[in-house]
């Protein structure tokens, strides 16, 4: 047990419970370290056959990283914030490569860092209350925690769409596009945990089979909202497969006079008025580059990109500091972005996030995946 994370073994199952519900279980550095320590300990513990991740409280599993800490640290001139990201990305990789079943109960709000500790799970369970997103461009960041990797692996150009807009979607969409595996009623999650705890399991495969069987046999959740992405797949692919963000916006403007006019107008307005012009362009490039990268390589890239977001490389301007200030600290919702609009973002502005020696000796994730 540490502040905001409870780790315990019940039966043959290791439970990681995030216990910071007043902050939507936002991840602090200590929480990340506690999760990593538990997983390291249980990896070779023969008493533990599987791991369950869950969040305390009604609102959700995890809304992301502790962005207030990011702002405070950078404003105070501290650079140890990059240790936070190095440890978080190591945890993301540990989860994705964990040798025992890791079952993520993705109930309620699951965004940003919450996606990072869930997407690598062996079994990703969502509920009728799930609200999922990678909303980083709204605060001057980009979809990190492996976001480039798992978004780039979605069909068509869904990754570009979700990564740049940061839209929120529910359980049906999550399962249909491949960001979740199965829907279980929220009220049934305690029963699932009890069954895993009380079962006489011989090995890890039996634990995973039991969880999958329970999920498959569960009654459909009441009040499950229908998906909204499937009917838009063709138009999303048409526009978010275009060359760059200005071309995408131009296409959306033209689409506003066609069949998907409502969606096009809403999407264009979102990108123009509620997202960082620079970071929408960076996120588009990130997802496209990630299609050629392993998860380990993408996490190494993201660590370097994060240095640029907070201007720790002295070349890019602290877009993330301004976004967090406007949306979370002062809450004036009037960020002073570096660029007046997306058309003002130059190719070299985006290239700075990706150029140079990417896997140099100063990258703390150099050995990841080796």
UniProtKB/TrEMBL annotation:
GO terms for biological process: L-valine catabolic process. The keyword Transport does not apply. InterPro entries: ClpP/crotonase-like_dom_sf (IPR029045), ECH_dom (IPR045004), HIBYL-CoA-H (IPR032259). One of its GO terms (molecular function) is 3-hydroxyisobutyryl-CoA hydrolase activity. Residues 13-354 form the Enoyl-CoA hydratase/isomerase domain. Keywords: Hydrolase. It holds the Pfam family ECH_2. It comes from the Bacteria. NCBIfam families: PRK05617.1. PANTHER family: 3-HYDROXYISOBUTYRYL-COA HYDROLASE, 3-HYDROXYISOBUTYRYL-COA HYDROLASE-RELATED. This is 3-hydroxyisobutyryl-CoA hydrolase.
